[in-house]
Amino acid sequence: MDNIEKRLTEEKRRLNTIAAPEELEARLRSALDGAAPARTKRISVVWRAAAAAILLIVIFGYNYNAFAFYGKKLLGFDELISSTLQELNDQGMGQLVDRKATLSDGTELTINGIMTDANQLILYYTLMNPKGIDNWSDPPFKPSKITGFLTNSHLESGVSQPNEGQTEVKGTITFEPVSPFAKKLTLHYFEPGENNQLIDHALSFAYDPNQAMQTEVKQSIGKKAQVDKGTINFQSITATPTMTMIEGSLNVDNFDRLPRALDGIELIANGVPVEMTGSGHGSSIRGRKFDLRYNPLPKPLKSLELVMKEFAGYQQLDQRLPLASAGEEPFTLEGKELWVKKVTVTAQGVEITIATEEDVLLDGVSIETQGETISLRTTIGQIETKLEDGTILKERTLLFDSQAKPEYLRIKGMHYMKEYNVVVDIPIN
What we know:
There is one protein chain. Helices cover about 15% and strands about 50% of the residues. With about 425 residues, the protein is mainly β. The chain contains four helices and 23 strands. Strands 13-12-16-23-20-21-22-19-18-17 form a ten-stranded antiparallel sheet, with no helix packed on it. It is globular, with a radius of gyration of 31 Å. β20 and β21 (about 375-385) form a beta hairpin.
């Protein structure tokens, strides 16, 4: 009897921790509003008992659905996903899939579930092989895209992690968003075959677009920012529960010269920076497009703006640096330092090893010998060094086609991350 009472107490405590879904009140209210007005009449004991039984069936029937809703959490992925996705998972925002396939090496692939919204589809998967997955970071499972009605969503990123025995790998893959009209989706993936050929496979599963998470903000921005070598056009913002995406186009001549030119654009919501989670860009015959990805927006949202603190800039220099005086002290190029670490003449030509901050790329580089100017042939051996103060120096060797010891290093200009501090207000509709 003690055990029974203990179990009843635990069950009562568990039921108390479960909150009713928000839509329960709406559903009951709608049902009550649509019901005919009740008439007062006497009810026999038999009918009272029957009514009580029906009420119990209704209550337990609805609770069954509620329990199923809370049981939709995707388990075992907490260490892989961000806190934002963990919260959405805890709220049961994912759609369970549980579709399986066996790979050529005997590994079992399971699509555990998906999360979708207007910005992306996140696929949760598991690879399991009791014999072990030797090269878990490069398994035979090569996902490529998801297709469906009006859907051709390509892979964007992925992350995975093995268990201690490397018999199981759990991972997530992010794809482009899928169509809200698709009812069935197909995951396409490759496996390596003979002679390094890739064999195409597909695994289809049902999709309920009604369970996709709702878009919170979607509107045009339509504002431009002028930079040294062109123009940036901020076109739109789409904020969903999984991320906030800014999309736009740009026509900036030196955009490709610096690898992280987009990183200096901040999204400020309610006066606080929203963490950037990634960025991307691509070119087509219609021009160059870009996107900036940030964490979801706070609630309630009171203000929103983009701040372009830094972007690719260009500085005309036309400097002539005397190599005879090169030493421990750096040259200064409009606020940026340049160290000439070594000048040698080898069988390949003149080699000048220099170091600058990581965001500096020299332009129009040449050397002067006795009355001759030789342009840079190529740059070799680039390495990065982190100083004690956190500054990252980029060291590389400039190679010139000459066997004469140079007197001067000439530099026409430099590309660098320039401070702009341009503010773009985004009205909240």
